[in-house]
Amino acid sequence: xxxxxEQEGKRRGRRPAGADTKTALIEAARAVFTEQGYEGATVxxxxxxxxxxxxxxxxxxxxKEGLFAKSVLQLPIDPSTIVSQLLEGxxxxxxxxxxxxxxxxxxxxxxxxxxxxxRSVASHQLAVEGLRDLFLKQIFGRIVAKVGVDNGLFRANLxxxxxxxxxxxxxxxxxxxxxxxxxxxxxxxxxxxIQRYFTGEITxxxxxxxx
Amino acid sequence: xxxxxEQEGKRRGRRPAGADTKTALIEAARAVFTEQGYEGATVxxxxxxxxxxxxxxxxxxxxKEGLFAKSVLQLPIDPSTIVSQLLEGxxxxxxxxxxxxxxxxxxxxxxxxxxxxxRSVASHQLAVEGLRDLFLKQIFGRIVAKVGVDNGLFRANLxxxxxxxxxxxxxxxxxxxxxxxxxxxxxxxxxxxIQRYFTGEITxxxxxxxx
DNA sequence: CCATTAATTCATCACGTGTTGAAAAGTTTG
DNA sequence: CAAACTTTTCAACACGTGATGAATTAATGG
Lengths: 211, 211
Description:
Two copies of one chain form a homodimer. Chain A contains ten helices and no strands. Chain A is mainly α.
């Protein structure tokens, strides 16, 4: 007890049992990447948080990059499922449903996944394309196509802007009171916006400099 | 071409004339911070881009942090002026005016300032607070206070969410077609959203878990 | 119960970082 | 023109990074 060298947690070799190092590393990585971004997060910090040796990152994931891919870029949703669920209900209430689903999905992990994704956009071009692909092509692009209105891509852009902004404010910058506002309250406030972007009157986009 | 040692651009001592090193560094810094984020950007990269020696960063700005403050955190706007201008017109069209002003201000630097701010949010807690202070307290908070509606802070949050999201999509992830859409077209599409957040009916926020 | 395999730790490597101090060369001042 | 000052380059430092390989210990299988 005097020097602490007798603590058994530091002995060498294989650990007694179970002790799922892989999972512990993924969870610690998600937390640290979320707080620090890709460059700011260090392998040593992640390993310390997970209570294991930094070398385990290489052993299990082949390096920092691999751990990043298996933690942050692993989304908590299946886009196809989400889209077909959203398209089942009435078209007049799709705005509300989209907002409710968006918040439910990202709230389920405490916003960590969303924040991590946005934070990694900073230093990783890979993440930018991931975000674009996820929101535009796989989700809102598909919905707009099914709904069958004009200016589909422009509408998808508008929807993405409001929802990404909502995620920024709720999960990343964490403004009060939106950070802790009940989902249904937000649905009532933002739902009509999304509804209008989907089915309301939207004039066609003009390229720059034709005002 | 063999050794390249004869190029005169590498001579020591004070440069011939003018050669505004400070400005060159600030501009290079803004570009590199925008592309790489705070941690990802290195002093050496910035200096090379500006065509000067890395040591100049310390000489003129006292270090990387100082250069960051003088480039990225130096906003292209004066909040007070903006706010009083926005409050001059009719209250029924404040939504349009806010969107138009937002886009005009950030477009003026090609979106670089906004992207840099968001990118630095990733690794810099300082930038998070800067963003929160700028949008909530200094701009939308003041407007909401002057307008004098209920749930002021909640409304300010909603406005911020839509505009920050617009900036994300237009300047950071650069989705098409929003990236290149004419300002007035965007005003027509998003103006009503902001108008409703300011003066429409918005139910009061409920804390989590009371659905 | 011994040999093999898997999991973990440790010491260390090569490298890139931000920063520093001294030397060199131009500019300004008397 | 010479002294003082300012601007710039260069070499180097101390440090932290991600990664590697050998040593060590537990689990496993015949």
